[in-house]
Amino acid sequence: MSDDVRVVDNPLAGDVFADDAMSFSLLDGTVRITLCSTKWTQPAPGEGIRVVIGRLVMPLPAAQRLIVGLNDFLTQVGHGPSESMKGGQAVQ
Known about the structure:
The longest helix is centred in the last third of the chain and has 17 residues, at 60-76. The protein has one domain (20-86). With 92 residues, it is of the alpha+beta class. It has helices spanning 60-76, 81-86, and strands at residues 20-27, 30-40, 48-59. A 3-stranded antiparallel beta sheet has the order 1-2-3. The chain contains 2 helices and 3 strands.
């Protein structure tokens, strides 16, 4: 994002919680990320289904900035991908 663009915070903007990013695709210069959440069926506990809750679509350069920024942030707080691998955890 250009430094000359002003950002206005919207206190009414909603939050979206996703359990996972289940698929990625590249189409016409946009990266498309499908987000899902696990929903539990009734009456049998423990039987979950994955439900698509939304798709994030970004121009390729913006998606590249997102991944670099997210990696930098997670590394700064001690949860970068290389830190997870050191602890024996698989990066998913």
